[in-house]
Design goal:
Structural class: alpha/beta
Radius of gyration: 23 Å
Strand order of the largest sheet: 6-19-18-15-13-11-10-9
CATH topology of one domain: TIM Barrel
């Protein structure tokens, strides 16, 4: 039975298929210590030396330990409550490249600071995601990323993890700011049906510190999973269930976000992973439905194959944001994302923020109260009158009507319209917001302590 109280037959079928897979052939666990822990708790040896079989009762035990709702906080401790039925929140995205003003290049530490300030000022973004920093040694990119983001925004931070040593350093950074969950981590299964040593070490090193974790399945239908969406979902769900088991046995009660929304399909003609197709929206819907089935907050990713903020990006991302909201996904990633999850774009982030506002207004619907129906007002105006000068109009127009910051709503000849104007305006807004300082919520001592931990870790990596 799902948390909504409605029986979801498809979710039950996917769950049963996943349990069948976890029992036979099992799940690859590339970590001797964690394999031993699972075997001690009731798992059975698999046919491979690096695999175990997870009985249904063991999965149920872990699911029962998962918190059904929990808070993610900003730097000052202000909470955002997540649950399987919470309203959607929006995060930025990870990646390797920056696409800005038609320039495409590897992402740097300076870009991380700029993007953090921009995202800080976008009112529909609740969390800032780490990126791969080209000018930082790979094992330290998570630590350096957290340090940079923390100094340039007070919003919740989602660290992009790179190494077990970095994960350990993150646990030293957390109490510098406070015991509240001001940042979260996560990792993705390497399918089919396998958790790598790196992923498991990230889970292990960050366990025991109250750090929320996203447990991600990323099946690619037709490549690392069956070509049918239900079959791919069963594989990804099995991977996530195994990840939940691991996390709950390492830290009972650890806050976990269920994320099947990274699932892809493999385009057989172009030989690329598709991230912005209608199938991705259906897989995000499955993520939300499975989250409700397990009574856990769900996540998904809104992306596009477009290489720049063009018409394709607009088509795929607007449909993505709207469909993921309508499906009931609780945590929607992807603000600024381009190029099949490889790149982030400041101007696309500004456009995405407008898309989210647009879709949220539609989602809010309309009222039918006496005041909203306005019969008395209409009688007072009378036949062939005007509502422009009515107090009722002044009182309601701003709350009732979507007021765009970016979209063109002028007349021909008063301003240049079309895609070029939208993109240029987004570039202007992005540049202006990046230039603004952002209140990071850190004291001088806290900022200094984060700098020292990051600097010490970089020295050890270099040595």
């Amino acid at each position: 039975m799902s948390v909504s109280g409605k029986y979801d037959g498809a979710a039950v079928q996917i769950h049963e298929a996943s349990i069948a897979l976890l029992e036979n052939p099992g799940i690859g666990i590339d970590h001797e210590e964690i394999r031993a822990l699972l075997l001690k708790r009731g798992a059975k040896p698999g046919d491979r030396n690096d695999s175990v079989r997870l009985p249904a009762a063991l999965v149920a035990e872990a699911l029962a330990q998962c918190p059904k709702q929990f808070d993610l906080t900003d730097r000052k401790g202000a909470p955002t409550r997540l649950s399987a039925v919470s309203e959607p929140v929006f995060w930025s995205c990870p990646g390797m490249f920056l696409h800005r003003s038609d320039e495409h290049r590897l992402f740097s530490s300076r870009d991380m600071a700029d993007m953090s300030r921009l995202l800080h000022h976008l009112d529909h973004v609740q969390a800032v995601f780490g990126m791969s920093l080209d000018d930082v040694p790979p094992p330290a990119r998570d630590v350096a990323g957290l340090q940079i983001m923390a100094k340039n925004t007070s919003k919740h931070l989602r660290v992009l993890c790179f190494s077990p040593e970095g994960a350990e350093a993150l646990t030293r950074m957390k109490p510098v700011v406070g015991n509240h969950p001001w940042f979260s981590v996560g990792f993705t299964a390497h399918g089919p049906l396998r958790w790598t040593r790196l992923a498991l070490e990230i889970f292990r090193k960050t366990a025991g510190h109250g750090i929320p974790v996203s447990v991600n399945g990323e099946p690619m239908a037709g490549a690392s999973a069956p070509a049918t969406l239900a079959g791919a979902a069963a594989v990804g769900n099995a991977e996530i269930l195994a990840g939940l088991v691991v996390n709950q046995f390492l830290e009972p009660g650890r806050p976990c976000i269920y994320n099947l929304g990274l699932a892809h399909i493999f385009d057989m003609r172009a030989a690329v992973a598709v991230t912005g197709g209608p199938e991705n929206a259906l897989l995000a819907q499955i993520s939300a439905r499975m989250g409700r089935h397990y009574d856990l907050p769900s996540a998904s990713w809104v992306s596009t194959e477009a290489l720049s903020p063009d018409g394709q990006a607009a088509l795929e991302k607007m449909f993505g944001f709207h469909s993921h909201m309508e499906s009931g996904v609780n945590c929607i990633w992807g603000v600024g994302q381009l190029e099949s999850e490889l790149a982030i774009s400041p101007e696309q982030a500004v456009i995405d923020n407008e898309m989210i506002a647009f879709a949220l207004r539609y989602r809010r619907g309309f009222a039918t109260s006496r005041d909203a129906l306005a019969v008395e007002v209409t009688r007072a105006v009378g036949i062939a009158g005007s509502f422009l000068d009515q107090e009722h109009t002044a009182a309601h127009c701003r709350s009732e009507f979507f007021m765009p910051d970016l979209l063109f709503r002028g007349r021909r000849g008063t301003d240049a319209g079309g895609t070029d104007r939208l993109k240029k305006r987004a570039e202007e807004i992005a540049a202006a917001e990046m230039a603004k300082p952002a209140e990071n919520g850190l004291s001088a001592d806290q900022a200094r302590a984060l700098d020292e931990i990051a600097a010490d870790f970089l020295r050890r990596i270099a040595g």
